[in-house]
């Protein structure tokens, strides 16, 4: 289990503990036992009062999201370095800081602890530096230099400690802010230290002259306040100028408001900023930045919240400060959801009405809330912003919202890839049409055959492009009033409304769709052969039930797939039972391999001249515990659809290779038998096929030459480029390639010339016609002559009679396979290598 990360508050406390350890160590090394440099010795309690008094005379300098405090605390600090022992100075500084931060400023405990501990570290550093530089100089020049160095370095230590704390709580410190903090601290420290050294010299020489220093000290304090006021006035003017420029230069009202709020967060050192605009049609729009990374631009606002904001301000009170409780329940809930602790709100006034409000919330820094000066600045900002936002730009925002809502509505009911209506819109339109048109409509449910193979072999980019192309061709096959939709994945649907004869019209559309996909489709630079399976259902059978109509068309589509794909079927009630059985088989097939229900049987391949068994073909079987033996032609297509074909194929491959080894071990003197294994087009496209074959060969300990991979001609049509590349990989490994059912596919002769084949298997229909001496005999002879010319072996399949064997021997056919020799059967310890009907 993962260890929970501490919160930011927890990290600060850990940081304070670390600083405490540093302070304790440096105190023992540099402070304990340090004696005063000069007389008179100032007691610790008097120094503590000096720290409290100096910290009461402070000036705040604010730099956007940070703030810096200037005080006269360096004066008692320097006097303590000169006239007090190390322990007394630490005690006075700690007691004074606790009184100031705890009793007078009421800071939270973590801030009190942090300020006290970082001051302790700073005092330790200062004492160590002064004693290192001054030595025994008393109050001479070396001590002055040491004091200057001590206050500057300890001030830098304080800045570094604060920066680390800010980094922990706020995630980082801007470089410009860091330069300002160091620069301001160094300037103030040098000034205060000079006054304090002068005071120390006066005190040690003639204490009666101390009142003379009150005037320069007060002058410095007044100068600090004047500088702070002027700087604040300059930054407020600069902020208003930049805000106006942002509003005027932003081409879009949403961009203008977002830029205004972003600048306001920095200027007011706030955590949340929000503008609510009141449209002329009564539609309120909300733009919010914060807390944290939260961002919402021109989103519809809760009308109750907008009304509550509008009620807060008017012409007599254009800007207000807010603290809990916030008034109306809608406002309280709105603020609670954003973690608002305190806020200020100003109206955006228009000539005839209030066009909106602007809110800043949750002040960052030492301040506990917003000041009256902050409120005045917000009011000025709101007045300037209102001029830029009202009238045409506000109406533009409302228009943008309407356009956005239309886009969102379109996206909710349309497929983002093809821009066709999606399942939700299609189902709604079907239900509506059934209510309006009754029995005069039909639905076509369409599935792209073997789409997964395209995705796996050519990539998802080509797959997506193919779906877009399919959508385009489907549109071209329908009328303008027909509805073409993508239901998801590779499934599409067409609704034919207002047709006189639903089934007849749907059949004509089905024919047009199948004809449209007789030619390959261009997809992302690839030429892909695509076929569709289509199911048709009409409103005549569903009695107004749109969901049932879609299900009927879906059932008919699966029936089309089970009958060979690339066709359409019209729904009949009897199909539903077949689909239920098919669905049950699909569910159980997923567990068949694990339950060891997938078994392998073997059928020998015999040398016709001698009767010697030269090879065996591995044939997959599913021994279902209830349904009995399930035919491969029934469950293999299911396995391809569910993706289980890969697991089944690899299981057959491993078992076949192990059995080949077992037969070899049983007859070590004989020639090793070749093992034929069938692979589907899905398996050939599997990127892990080559690794699986290597593992099967290595695991069984047989040579690659003993394995023969069988493929059919129809597979070659599916994806000739990928299949050709994979066959060449197999040939390079040493595996032999056999073309199964030769003569029943397409363009057979071209494959013999272009593909890396080793064996041809003549299909059973040609073997069946041999004995009659008709065209089949001549065709088989032509295949044999062609194979000999190309150096290929020939195996005749489906041999069932002695006459067929004799005819094949006369044609000098090398090998044969069929029930005449043996039916497929489970593996035995060894294959008999004799002749005759029971040779295996």
Oligomeric grouping of the chains = single chain
**Overall pLDDT metric:** 79
**How many domains make up the coordinates?**
4
**Largest pleated sheet:** 8 strands, mixed, barrel
Helix content: 55-70%
| Number of separate helices | 29
The share of residues in extended strands comes to 15-25%
Structural class: alpha/beta
Task: Return the CATH class of the largest domain.
Answer: Mainly Alpha
First and last CA, distance: 59 Å
**Count of DSSP E strands?**
24
The outline comes out as elongated
| Sheet with most strands: strand arrangement | 16-17-19-20-21-22-23-24
Under the CATH scheme, the architecture of the largest domain is Orthogonal Bundle
CATH fold-level label of the largest domain: Arp2/3 complex 21 kDa subunit ARPC3
Query: Mind telling me the C-alpha Rg?
Result: 45 Å
Query: Segments where pLDDT lies below 50 for 5+ residues?
Result: 59-68, 833-840
Q: How would you explain this protein's 3D organization?
A:
With 840 residues, the protein is α/β, with parallel strands linked by helices. It folds into four domains: 8-233, Orthogonal Bundle (Arp2/3 complex 21 kDa subunit ARPC3); 251-400, GAF domain (Beta-Lactamase), CATH 3.30.450; 414-571, Reverse transcriptase/Diguanylate cyclase domain (Alpha-Beta Plaits, 2-Layer Sandwich), CATH 3.30.70.270; 595-816, Alpha-Beta Barrel (TIM Barrel), CATH 3.20.20. It is built from 29 helices and 24 strands. The protein has an eight-stranded mixed barrel. A hairpin with a 5-residue loop joins strand 4 (284-289) and strand 5.
